[in-house]
Amino acid sequence: MRDTKTKTTCPYCGVGCGIDVESSNKRQVSIEGDRQHPANHGRLCSKGTHLAETVGLEGRLHYPMIGQRTVGWDSALDDVASRMRDTVEQYGPDSVAFYLSGQLLTEDYYVANKLAKGFVGTGNIDTNSRLCMASAVAAHNRAFGEDVVPCSYADLDEADLVILVGSNTAWCHPVAWQRIEKARERRGTKIIVVDPRRTETAAMADLHIPLPPDGDIALFNALLAEMIDRGRLDGSFLDDHCTLPEGFLDALDPAAHDIDPAVFNELAELVDSNSRMVTLFSQGANQSVCGTDKGNAIINLHLAMGRIGRPGAGPFSMTGQPNAMGGREVGGLANILACHLGFSEAERASVADFWQTSRLCSGPGLKAVDLFRAVHAGKVKFVWIMATNPAVSMPDAGFVREALARCPNVIVSDIIADTDTAKLAHVRLPALGWGEKDGTVTNSERCISRQRAFMARPGKARADWKIVCDVAARLGHGQSFDFESPADVFREYSEMTVLATRHGKLLDLSNQAGITDKAYDRMQPFQWGGARPFEHGFSTASGKANIVAVSPSKARGAGPSLALNTGRYRDQWHTMTRTGLSARLSAHRPEPLLEIAPADGEAHGLSDGGLAHIETTAGRSAYRVAFNEDQRAGEIFAPMHWTDANSGAGRTGLLVHPECDPVSGQPGFKNVPAQVAPY
Ligand code: SF4
């Protein structure tokens, strides 16, 4: 019998769809899209639609565990606190690290960041969002002076041209794709896909640009040069709102790209003739050793043509996870403090004063790849991992697993008992999952929505923010962590955004600082910064946006190797701990496929439907072979989802090099030199 109706938000991708839930007290749940939510207006994709099949308790961690022993919360929290205290006393604050997740709610992120940076005094707190969109963050900071997405979903409805760069939108952000398709039906919006693969999205586009991996910078620079030649730059926008690097525009060459000239010309015609242009970029752009420059190449074109801050126009970074944006806002990345503040003396002083602490970390900490290197090297001796599975999802995952096996203090907070990472933990802390926890998330268009609890907490599971506060109290910081509810945390975070305004940033939730518990409970989705956040100037000292001089990177592939690109399947999420519970979702792609052009497959002795290994210098794993005419010659594709826990094959994380973008620290999950051979 249905007895509760709740409005909440989907726990999967960065579209952040609203969901109406009806639930009984026996975890029977029915799901519908929330017609009032501005992100989806009632639409859901297959993952959202089948959420009800994933709320069972299979595999859940119900009780705190030290080693293989079930213990009470007091014992577990005492143990975590004493391990952390001893580590800091013996080796200093930088021997402690936290590794968080875009699955956490903003309130969880806020208190974890406050404890690590503010009271332990370590900058070593990073997140799996580093693997997802750190390059877009860095590109925003370089161009705008602040990590702000300058678009809204309504711009997709109002655009005449949508360019999708490195995004299989129809599979990975399906409801955003549905909006784009609607715009095509309604106003004839043209869709261009820039992607080495002819993905499902590319097959439905008006034009597919099959560029070589990491060919984006050359393409967007050439497009900018072509628009200069055609006299299409917006001179007054450039003069009034942009800072130009000396000589950059003059040096650009419209022929310096790797695209068929006829296809390039078709692209240029569409760009020339459609001023309502959105360029939506995602992991295909970000997960690259030159991802930040790609983001800036895209932003440069929009700035130079004045196609930003207007209806239906702008460079639009789509985040992968449901709350990567919230994490960015409260300082979940190692290279920011909180509320978009950096580590200048003035910003540090403001944060230390607000938190009333004398222990604030002295500077940025280690980004994800370097953080696990430091664990491996024995420099980090305590790591607390929350809501993520780095033993599978990090590049060179075998190395990360080895690092965790060596580390004397591995704490894992998770909803699942035996993830590949949890198996390496000394202490496991049972966290609340979707439908059990309360808090807020921020989606890709800066819209903050509530996630709400509608199911009883299983076993002794606790909210992540509460677990962190309980440990902080044991470390002697109870007064600074005396939050009684997620609403309490949200009030403090909102109040803290006053500092952002004081330091010239746009992030401002100060009008939420006095929100009552009741109002928090009833909170409707709202967008911070409004539809045109840079209406009154950019967040740089001059108020002008920076056009950033970027040049194409050298090709990464070597010799006779194939280039391995990795990505998602339509119906799976991350390491499948949730989506793997649904038989219907798993039916879409039941096993991990190595997709390869038939001629390449035959040349390497593979057969369609047979088994093969992919091998890189980082590792080796087995896959089912799928010959695919849409796969470019010389490139292969493999999915990211499979783990030791669920199959042992298709371990793509083992294959990816830990090579990173030098600006953002984001690892390159694409364009990895690889070999294939029959199994
Ligand atoms: Fe959930 Fe994303 Fe699908 Fe919306 S598009 S239902 S947020 S997975």
TrEMBL record:
What does the record give as cofactor? [4Fe-4S] cluster; Mo-bis(molybdopterin guanine dinucleotide)
> Which residue intervals define the domain 4Fe-4S Mo/W bis-MGD-type in the entry?
3-59
Highest taxon, organism lineage: Bacteria
User: Can you supply a Gene Ontology BP term from the record?
Assistant: cellular respiration
Q: Which UniProt keywords apply?
A: 4Fe-4S, Iron, Iron-sulfur, Metal-binding, Molybdenum, Nitrate assimilation, Oxidoreductase
Q: GO MF annotations for this entry?
A: 4 iron, 4 sulfur cluster binding; metal ion binding; molybdopterin cofactor binding; oxidoreductase activity
One cellular component GO annotation, for this chain's record? Answer: oxidoreductase complex
Write out the similarity annotation: Belongs to the prokaryotic molybdopterin-containing oxidoreductase family. NasA/NapA/NarB subfamily.
Question: What is the name of the protein in this document?
Answer: Nitrate reductase catalytic subunit
Q: Which organism is it from?
A: Aurantiacibacter atlanticus
Which region of the full protein is contained in this chain? 1 to 679 of 859
